[in-house]
Amino acid sequence: MRSQRYLTAGRMTVVAWGLLLSSVGAAAAPTTSTSRPGAERPNIIFILADDLGYGDLGCYGQKKIKTPCLDRMASEGVRFTQAYAGGNVCAPSRCCLMTGLHTGHARIRDNDRGPLLPGDVTVAEVLKSAGYATGCVGKWGLGEAGTTGIPTRQGFDEWFGFLNQTQAHDYYPESLWRGEQRVGLAGNKGGRQGQYVQDVFTSEALDFIRRHQHAPFFLYLAYTIPHANNELGRTTGNGLVVPDDVPYSDRPWPQPLRNYAAMITRLDHDVGKLLALLGELGIERKTVVFFSGDNGPHREGGADPDFFESAGPLRGHKKTFHEGGIRIPLIVRWPDHIASGAVSDAVCAFWDFLPTAAALAGAKAPKGIDGVSILPALGGEPQPRREYLYWERPGYLFDQAARIGDFKAVRRGANGPIELYDLETDIGEKRDIASQHPQLVAQAEDIFRSARTASKDYPFSDHLPTRRRVYGFAAIGAVVLGVFVVLDRRRRKGLHRGESGKVR
Ligand SMILES: [Ca+2]
Q1: What is the CB neighbour count within 10 angstroms for residue 305?
Q2: 208 and 158 Cβ atoms separated by less than 8 Å
Q3: Which residue among 28, 115, 252, 349 is least crowded, i.e. fewest CB within 10 A of its CB?
């Protein structure tokens, strides 16, 4: 793979750490959560933003939106330039993050389906079985109340937030889930706007860290910023909800854009609070913090990704398998263990998180997953070569994509033509070179067929009518319309004769 270069990362202790733990890990890891051997194993925090673009942070080239805390986090850790989300929309992406599988194997491959089943193994279950305290705060989306897919049935000791993704559009909810109980937010009762949900999540996360500071813990903090309140956006034109638009109040931008920027800066500030708490508690050197986003930037609720260049140089946004839909920011910080200010162009994806977390904890990842540990990349070492990365989304059209070395194959619809791009020379996917590389196209076609397992929930076909059916329906419609017009003319003629007769 031409792109396996490690730009500024130095060799740090993380690789030795991984080797040490992997050699003793599984045996040393306790099987119950009551015996925790170790402060020596790092805490793990994964902070996820919702619909944050590859170009939305200063450290990824953003010029208009201020993100000083995340920029500093990048300067203290490793910033990945070729990290990918699990999918191009929320639920499948999060399923990949939690289960270490790509969307060709994952339980949940599109929005609004699921839930996770008891046999699905999550990163929380892996870490819990290794003795970690596990907590989830924010937006879940992998199972509704009463199902086996909720966080407390998937390895999390503690859970607070939205189960339902649509309900998560609301930034002032009247209630949230705590464990398996619905709890009210007094400040938002009766439609009041007293508790902005991002602030509530931040307080909850800080509280979780304080309570578990002495034991190894795993915190999955899935914020909803900068996702739009789509329903509000449809009625008011502004679904970007934030308590104030500081520090952008004086910008000559439309209000939704001031709000979008303020949301991201607020998120940045909250990440800063969390990192500051780790320092305050003296646990920053034993806490690995990941920060990323679940898919590309959106154009919902009045947002304008073109104005902010939210996808950076990439083509497309959320819901596409072009790079803008799936390439996302990824920053990892672990002081004294990984290099400061490193930039890695290692190719990795959400399904690599589970095996990476397992390696950090000295736990065994389940067999047969798609992910690999990225500890080598974190330590500035080359990642072992992987044959390809694969994505699918079985929407109206069954879309698929594969990253093969520096090449990227995309197909819109199960019967669509395969497009091919060379990301090394064409990061914006402007030149389809499929006709020049029939062998690579054949390889992509083979991956699109073989990289997935069949799923009764997600049949391998388009759900839109075929072109022939569209023409057929159009022809029938034209005939019906013609007959209606002729009959109507005759009716009018008859009516005219009758009226004339009456006058006479
Ligand atoms: Ca999302």
Answers
A1: 22
A2: yes
A3: 252
CA distances (Å), origin 315, targets 26, 59, 177, 323: 43, 19, 37, 6
Rounded distance between C-alpha atoms, residue 379 and residue 356, angstroms: 12
What lies within 8 Å, CB to CB, of 336 at 6+ separation is: 12, 13, 285
Please give the DSSP secondary-structure letter assigned to residue 411.
E
Q: From the centroid of its chain, how far is CA 79? A: 17
Cα–ligand 1 centroid distance for 65 (angstroms): 19
Task: Tell me, in angstroms, the distance from the centre of ligand 1 to residue 295's CA.
Answer: 5
Angle at 124 between CA 118 and CA 130, to 5 degrees: 110
CATH number, domain 390-450: 3.30.1120.10
CATH architecture classification, 13-30+50-106+163-382: 3-Layer(aba) Sandwich (3.40)
Contact 47, 272 (CB under 8 A): no
Peptide bond into 438 cis (omega under 30): no
What is the CA(51)–ligand 1 centre distance, in A?
Answer: 4
Output the CA 429–ligand 1 centroid distance in Å: 22
* E strand residue ranges, 223-337: 287-293, 327-333
> Ligand 1 centroid vs 7 CA: distance in angstroms?
29
Give residue-wise pLDDT tens across range 103-162.
999 999 999 888 999 999 999 999 999 999 999 999 999 999 999 999 999 999 999 999
Burial of 388 (0-12, 13-18, 19+ CB in 10 A): middle
- Ligand 1 ion: residues within 5 Å (CB): 50-51, 90, 294-295
Q: Which amino acid is at 404?
A: I
Instruction: Please tell me the distance between residue 85's alpha carbon and the centre of ligand 1 in angstroms.
Output: 10
CA of 86 relative to ligand 1 center, distance in Å: 11
pTM (predicted TM-score): 0.89
